[in-house]
User: What shape does this take?
Amino acid sequence: MAIATMTGVRRRVYGGDAVLAAGLVMIVVQLVWKFDLVSRTYFRQDDFMFIARGLANQLSWDYLMRIDFGHLMPGAFALHWAMGRLGVHNDALAHAITIGLQAAASLALLRLLKLLFGARPAILVPLGFSLLTPMTIPGLSWWAVVAETLPFQIALPMALGSHVLYTRTGRFRHAVAAAGWTVFGMVFFVKAPFIPVLAFVLTLGWLGGRRLWRAWLLYLGVLVPYAVVFFRQLFTSVQLTNETFQPALPSAEVAAKSAWTLLTGSLVPTSMGGPWRWQPIGEDYALAATPPALVWVSLAVAVAAVTVSVIWRRRAWLAWLTLLGYFLLADVVPIMLGRVELLGPDLSGFELRYISSTAVVVALVIGLAFIPVADEQQPWRRPAHRLGWVWVPPAAVFAAGSLWSVAAYADRPLGVNVKSYVETATQALARVPAGAVVLDTHVPDKVAFPAFFYDYARHSKVLGPAAPHPIAWTTRLSGPVANPLIFDQQGRLRPVGVDGVTIPAKSACTPVGRTEVRFRLPAPIAGGEHTVQISYLNGAPTTLNVRLGLAQIAVPAGKDLGTTFAPITGGGTELAVRAIGPGSCVGEIRIGAPVPADSGAPIPPQPVPG
Assistant: This one.
């Protein structure tokens, strides 16, 4: 009996327990490796809009259930809502959540592989693929993508693992758990409804095709309400463009090119350790830029792998067909409906965040195509031992390529400069007195693109919530504004200057009464929006009527020496000013755009390092 016990212990240590221990070590090493990248990232683009929107709303149905350009993600919106209230731009918290979710997703996949194939060494191959593939790297560097996709990467393997347990034990609680994990995924990501579809294919091909009508009815009971809510919200949610969703498919040519580019330029190369080269989008993000020659090499290797698996492994064809179907339905179709017309087939085709969550499905398919499912009868068409260790060289090449690709992605500033701008601007707002007038301009493109986010790209939306006291934000200067400030390109506050045409002051100021006084401009001004800055010396408060071409506006001017601003839309060769009420004496006049003035000390004196 003692000998039998020792034999069992050895089997656990050198068998399943050793495999699980190796898997856990791989997961920990991956987390350390990826944390080095994640810790250098910062919030970007959509992140600022989502956090600002969360701060402006209560945790209500309307807030949570708004569909953002095709994405229903109440769970992610809840995270953004909480993030805004836990430090606004708390990147340390975002990093901790990212790594925690990544750890949970990796453990969930290990659980699924163990349940499906048994605790055999072969499961470390698909696990290693999921941990190493660069397919997920751009998504890990973007908080908004993390908040959507990583919970889904937890839900998918957990749901499928529970479904496997249900098919083997018949215990309905496992089906309930599978449905629960599916709902969890749906709360965060629009691709989660495909989880029951994957469960159906898995059952049909590898789990005996048993009649599990109770489970299918349960899963259907989850999918139908979701579909009703999704499509209702899809056609009623107001987008940032103040419009509702209008379904429209691109032309067949654009659709085909986009799908082909996403497959051959993104999915296949990153499944081989690519893309090896990146196309920067700003400083903190990049698209795949797989060299054309390596695209064809990747396709050749993929065809060879599929061919070998189909020749040796029964139903390997179904595994690859499942991956292709998932790719077309879950990855391509959403892009066709909402993104390809905006981004174009080339840009959208190399955007890895569209397929980052597919890494889990690829890992599962690799397992199904090459590893027998536990208790599977006659899994092989040919003797398996002939394959031997042929997987080792491709795995080594994949690992080396992945390390190279990730290192190449990380070889850029990532979030350093955006963080420097945001933290510098936050410190500047903290140093100015309460009620200071700050011109509410758009943040630099590196922080958030105004063309995409409109008013959510203004400083008041991005930085206002972090100010410790009230700030008087204004989108245009009008009247005698005292000491207005404006952000420079480094995030510091400076006095406002007007850059453009200057009408110098004479030796004495020019008297202006009820009769219009015309000032000849040194150079013609093209039609458009301009700010006129007028210096004056008044004996009493008055109103100045300013005319530029056919456009005119009346603005107040105070007593004594001061400056008033007139926002005006016009153009021409002269500026005319007259007083409405007591007369005025006008000095220097500037016409142009508000800019940070070189005079005056910036606040703070030096930018905060990123």
Observations:
- The two ends are 64 Å apart (CA to CA).
- The longest strand covers residues 517-538.
- Residues 1-14 have pLDDT under 50 and may be disordered.
- The first helix runs from residue 2 to 14.
